[in-house]
Amino acid sequence: QVAILIPFRNRYEHLPVLFRHLIPMLQRQHLQFAFYVVEQAGNQPFNRAMLFNVGFREAMKDLDWDCLIFHDVDHIPENDRNYYGCGQMPRHFAAKLDKYMYLLPYNEFFGGVSGLTVEQFQKINGFPNAFWGWGGEDDDLWNRVQYAGYSVTRPEGDTGKYKSIPHHHRGEVQFLGRQYALLRKSKERQALDGLNNLNYFPNVTYDALYKNITVNLTPELALVTEY
Question: What's this protein's family per the entry (predicted)?
Fold first, then answer.
C-alpha cells in the first residue's frame, strides 16, 4: 500500500499529465495506492519539504502505509519496471533525468522522486522545514538519511529514467546563501527541525483521483530553537 505525496503550487497543467502516466504504471505493478496533493496557499516562498511533512501527517491519518513516495509533479517515469515500493533502505527513484542528460548530477543527489517507509521517515524526523524557496531540501534529506545509518538505493540501468516537464520557476525564489548555511548545520538541526516542530492548519478536499490538502505555510509554523 503506497501513498504518493505531491507538493503543489500553480502547476494545474502538470497534474493530469502525471496521473495519465503514473496510474497505469502503478496498476500494472499491482500496487494499492492513493495520491495526496499538498498545495501551498499564501504568498510565502515555496516550501517543498514542509509540504511533504504535511502530506505525511495527513496520509498517516488514513492508513499505516507500507511506502511513502515523495513525488515532484513534473517528473514523469519512462520505465514501468521502476517499481514504486520501499525496501530496507530509502529509495531514490528518479536517478536519471532527461534534463541532466540521464546522468546523476552528483552522487548525493536525492531529488525528484524518493521513497521511504514510515519507520525510516520518522527515524530521520522527516524533511527539514527551514528551506524556503527553491533548492537544498533534498540535499538535507540525503544528509538525514546518512546520519540515521541508512544508505540510498537506486534503480539499475535505464529503469530510473524520467522526463521532466519544462516549466518556468514562476515565483520560485532561490536563497542560495541561506541554503548552504542550513546544509552546513544539517546534523545539529535534524533533531530540532522536521516532523517534530511542524504545525499547520489544513483545508482538505477530495477530487476523483486524489485528496487535496491546502495549507498556508509561514516560518512561524515550524520554529527552530537555536542550536
Answer: Belongs to the glycosyltransferase 7 family.
Pairing mode, if any, of strands 203-206 and 210-216?
A: antiparallel
Strand order of the β-sheet with 210-216 is 91-92, 113-116, 67-71, 2-8, 33-41, 210-216, 203-206
How many angstroms separate the Cα of 41 from the Cα of each of 23, 47, 213? 26, 11, 10
- Domain edges within the chain: 2-222
DSSP 45: P
- The whole-angstrom separation of Cα 66 and Cα 87 is 9
**What is the length of the chain?**
227
What's the CA gap between 107 and 129, in Å, rounded? Answer: 23
Q: How far is CA 195 from the centre of its chain?
A: 14
Pairing of strands 161-164, 96-97: parallel
Please tell me the number of Cα atoms within 13 Å of 36 on its side-chain side.
28
Look up residue 162 and give its three cell numbers.
Answer: 524520467
Whether 7 contacts 25, CB under 8 Å: no
Contacts 24+ apart (CB under 8 A), 149-153: 150/89, 150/90, 150/120, 150/124, 151/89, 152/89, 152/90, 152/91, 152/92, 152/110, 153/87, 153/89, 153/90, 153/91, 153/92
pLDDT tens by residue, 90-118: 999 999 999 999 999 999 999 999 999 99
Residues 117-165 pLDDT 10s: 999 999 999 999 999 988 899 999 999 999 999 999 999 999 999 999 9
Evaluate whether 140 touches 50 at the Cβ level (below 8 Å). no
- CATH class for the domain made up of 2-222: alpha beta
